[in-house]
Design a protein that fits this description.
Blueprint (H helix, E strand, L loop, with lengths): L2 H9 L4 E4 L6 E6 L2 E7 L4 E5 L2 H10 L4 E3 L8 E5 L5 H17 L3 H6 L2
Antiparallel strand pairs: 1-2, 2-3, 3-4, 4-6, 5-6
């Protein structure tokens, strides 16, 4: 999956916005004002929020592809080399990140996206 395909996948999710709040290279995806994914558009690395136990399992299972979150809380974020993993897995992991953030949004915000 390339960056544009990944962007389209993220924007296809309910309520997602995109921006470049950090620099011109880092595209950020949010739901309800909370980040669930961001990607370095030139390096093809994506950071995704992850359940801590699952994050460790993924790092063990895919050591060349999944690493502790770059510049993020290493317990809750993974950095994934986008071009070295299947589209199916990156979509599953992106869905997991999105769901983690959505679940913890206030009810008022959740209803805006229903």
């Amino acid at each position: 999956m390339n960056v544009e395909q990944y962007r389209e996948y993220c924007l296809g999710k309910r309520g997602v916005t995109e921006s470049f709040p950090f620099d011109d290279d880092t595209l950020v995806f949010k739901i309800g004002g909370k980040i669930f994914a961001f990607i370095d558009i030139y390096d093809n690395r994506v950071n995704l929020k992850c359940d801590p136990e699952k994050a460790l399992r993924l790092r063990e299972q895919y050591p060349a592809v999944v690493n502790p979150g770059y510049h993020m809380n290493k317990i809750h974020w993974n950095t994934i080399q986008l071009d070295l993993i299947s589209d199916q897995l990156i979509c599953e992991w992106t869905d997991h990140s999105y769901d983690l953030i959505f679940t913890h949004l206030p009810a008022k915000i959740k209803t805006e996206f229903s």
